[in-house]
Request: fold
Amino acid sequence: MTGPGNSPEPYGSGNSPEPHGSGGSTDPYGAADPDGLRAERAALKDRISADSLTTRRDYLRIVATVSGGLAVGSTVVSAGVLHRHGDGAAAPLKVADRLERGEAVSFDYPGEDDRAMAIRLPDGTLVGYSTVCTHLACGVLWRRDHGSDGDLYCPCHEGQFDSRTGEVTGGPPPRPLPKVVVVEDAQGAVWAIGTARSGEDEEAGLCRGLTERNPALTEAAGCANRKSGR
Reply:
């Protein structure tokens, strides 16, 4: 089940879905494009602004002070707390009924043109990221069979990111992947509930978002005495 306009595409161990922006493509009329320039130009249209960031721990701690919204387990999630930087609030989105270890699901969040992925690592850890590479906005895929956790890989220029943290581990990307905050509800369904800027301090990102969208909540969330920063 997904929200309107979102189409999660699950894939599991050993699968490598064709990413947006991969090189060596050919157009429908057979014209060679050995450098993948068309794909890269198309991928640039998918570039998103860095998103306001928070970890699951910080997010759940803060939203516990806010009433209304979606119940995820025993925690209340307000649709208005987290939002895409510069856009309207992004509502929580159900991205999978269940996600087993070693599986991933792709979806669009926080907007219909923002590609993202949730991954259940082999040890059961649930992580989520934007799959727009921070180098030239090509599509990033998860390679399950690379290392104990797999890796996140951009085929355009061989950028690599750590599956557990989103940090750059190889290639030209200048910044980590922005995170998508994902949680599991009491029934085992996986939800995307917010986003995070690449490299931004988690609480600073959330407090910045609260200040922009709902200043009245900043004191309740413990932001009033916090210095902004990374």
